[in-house]
Amino acid sequence: MSESKTSPSYIELCAEIVSAYVSHNSVPAADLPVLLTSVHAALAKTAQGQHEEPKVELVPAVPVRKSITPDAIICLEDGKSFKSLKRHLRTTYDMTPEQYRAKWSLPADYPMVAPNYAKARSELAKTMGLGQQRRKGNAPVVAAANDAAKPKRAAAKKNAPSDEMTAPAKGRRTKKAA
């Protein structure tokens, strides 16, 4: 196609787009030529197939190797250091650890928690006995402890008479007798 055939169609399209925009938005008269020029240029680029945006190279705030220290993990997005990076990513950037790793081309085993912090939490969990299954020898001790914790009223209920009608204690009147 020659430019003489396509140019008027660009002008018509540009005029339609700008008039629709101006009818819904307030634009100063001095800005109209700039708006027309930018819309026309955008239409020309899309017609030529040059609508691809240049790829922006991601540059981390800190080199990946230096982002892991013994006491902190440094965020590649903003360079801030944290003991645990997961919450920061979720609240600030609305990212999951998997999305973060994919964005920065990090390996799947890239830590989200500082090594010393992970070690301290692991030791704390071990001292508390978390994650260990009950041993067969400990099960009766736990059952005996549960029996001792039951209220003593249960023993009184076993010796109590059944729900059948029984005679009231002496000196008391029943509702029927009144």
From TrEMBL:
GO terms for molecular function: DNA binding; zinc ion binding. Coiled coil: none annotated. This is Transcriptional regulator. It comes from the Bacteria. Residues 130-178 are annotated as: Disordered. Belongs to the ros/MucR family. It comes from Microvirga makkahensis. Residues 138-148 have a biased composition (Low complexity). One of its GO terms (biological process) is regulation of DNA-templated transcription.
